[in-house]
Amino acid sequence: MHNSSYKKYSIILFYVLFAIGNFNALIQIFIPRIVYTFLYLLILFVSVFEFAKQEEFCFNKDAARKNFLVLLFIFICLIRFVVQIIMDDYTELSLNRFLQTLVPVLVYFPATFLGCDDRKRLETFYIKCALLSVLLGLLNQVTGILPSRYFADEMVRVGNYVITRSYSMAGFSLGTGTICSIGIALLLKNGDKFSIPFKLFSSVVFIYGLAVTFSRGGVFFALIIITMFIVLNLICSGSKINKWVLVTFFILLFALVITVFMYGDRIVQSTFWGRYVLNAFDSSTSLRANFQKKAVDLIKMHPLFGKGFGFVGSNAYSMSVGEGFPPENNYYEIAIDCGLIAMCSYMLFVLKSVFYELRTKEKNKIAYVGIIVGFMMWSLMSTPLEGDLNAAFFWYCIGSLVS
Asked: Helix crossing, 388-402 with 366-378: angle to 10°?
């Protein structure tokens, strides 16, 4: 158990990160993004520095073996960026993309300093922040209290209709889908910390908030989290399924059948059915596939050490910088940024952490596996970890797994 100053700074860091992650769009109205980004960077580096100067700190062979892959990834990123600067081969987005890649990985180390009670308090805080963020977003769509220029309507086409997507104080549909899904995961993990009415209310808000974003990736993310949580709980318990679980399952199944029987026509004609079923594979899916093909071609041209930071990504696409397209796959983006060796070390370290938990079967860490696997699957068809705040939570989960 760590009781030194680095643990204190680690706890402060995650309180700050969790608050920013859930209220990013709201905070930006009053404070420039660079200001609070610098704030959590400062706390992060102080935490790591305090840890490094402790007398008991000794980077022995066991520690080196445990963290070799993540250290290799960090080293390659640093060398790749330095080479870009020396070779004068960079864009106006290179520094930004480099920091977006590297800084979240560093969050892994403070996350390993936390104890079980620390994580419970932090995750309880996250749930409350996410709940408030979603509620404020839904309220603002009705009242319009906050300036519309900060929350411009985000639209999606469903068949012949254009639908307004929901948002939260975390941002638009992607950010909202992410915090709702993580909120559900942390509710499952820390259910004993809350009353039944609070859990029911929070679940309804998160599920509704997720559904009205019309984010297929967000819904997919949540379904993976819930499925992984149920399956791993059954595996870790090593016992037969509780009879009340079966009773609840059949009650829900019966309710679903009755609902479909009574309201089938309305369901089929609804925007939800159109977005999530009929138009699950629409023109945006075809466009994504084209971007991924361009990413593969670029990787083939620069396989070992990549093209460099700042040439692709959502910002490069919107600002027509560098190659000017989003890879629509986090792994492709890493490979383009700093090469296949870095991408493989990144993926292998994450998978190693997941398999470590599957071997130890610690039930209080099952939710982290669901979140990590959910992000990894989502990353095959999008870039949910391109932003530093989502990626920071991803590495928080990895650090929590191996702590």
From this structure: 140
Query: CA 193, 196, 199: angle at the middle one, nearest 5?
Result: 70
pLDDT tens per residue across span 266-308 = 544 555 545 554 454 444 556 777 888 899 999 999 989 999 9
**Residue 209: Cβ within 10 Å count:** 25
Q: Are 217 and 378 in contact (CB under 8 A)?
A: yes
Residues 6+ apart with CB under 8 A from 114: 7, 10, 11, 14, 122, 399, 400, 403
Residue 313 vs residues 10, 94, 339: alpha-carbon distances, Å: 30, 11, 15
Nearest alpha carbon to residue 334 among 101, 87, 85, 75: 101
Distance CA 99, CA 285 (A): 29
Name which of 105, 394, 329, 370 is nearest 221 in CA terms: 370
Whose structure tokens read 């009650």? Answer: 251
DSSP result, 277-292: IITSS-HHHHHHHHHH
Structure tokens at 399: 């650090």
Q: What value does the mean pLDDT take over residues 317-332?
A: 88
User: How many Å apart are CA 42 and CA 262, to the nearest integer?
Assistant: 57
Helices (H), 190-303: 196-211, 216-237, 243-269, 271-273, 283-301
